[in-house]
């Protein structure tokens, strides 16, 4: 059985634990293969917000790319994927994607995802939001197959811990990418 490929990108915004949870849940789904790219700021955030080394973090993915490698497979539309998730997604990354400024592999892979009309989930992290942030997100929300998904806590799931919150948010993120995670509590 050929696995479905999903790109997961980590930018420098706060929220690295959400990326960890997404990668761990994806690892439990045998039909998916994860392709990971981390920006320089994303690497710094992982070290600051988790108890993991970068080697441990990248070990959660099936394939990991250097963000400087603009010629990597995920930079080409001929490399078939189910789409891409940027978690967390900084406003710098949003601006780069919105303006087609593909100066690294993360931005190029997002650009390819859009041009190939594949799902692109942007888990945006910033507060408060400026007019520039809102304008860039508004523009991207009108692009086919792009979803802006701020990680907003759902209290109806009655979380008892931060792990519960992260799990529920990761399930919502993966669900937006068309990936069902067993144990995801939906509103009834």
Layout of helices and strands, plus pairs?
Elements: E1 4-10, H1 16-27, E2 32-38, H2 40-49, H3 54-58, E3 63-66, E4 83-89, H4 91-98, H5 105-115, E5 119-124, H6 131-141, E6 146-148, H7 162-176
Parallel strand pairs: 1-2, 1-4, 2-3, 4-5, 5-6
Coarse morphology: globular
How large is the radius of gyration?
15 Å
Query: What is the helix content?
Result: 25-40%
Secondary-structure-derived class: alpha/beta
What is the succession of H and E elements? EHEHHEEHHEHEH
Mind describing the biggest β-sheet? 6 strands, parallel
Secondary structure: number of strands: 6
What is the percentage of strand-forming residues? 15-25%
User: How many helix segments?
Assistant: 7
Strand sequence of the main sheet, in spatial order? 3-2-1-4-5-6
Distance between the termini: 34 Å
Q: How much is the average pLDDT? A: 96
Runs with pLDDT <50, length 5+? none
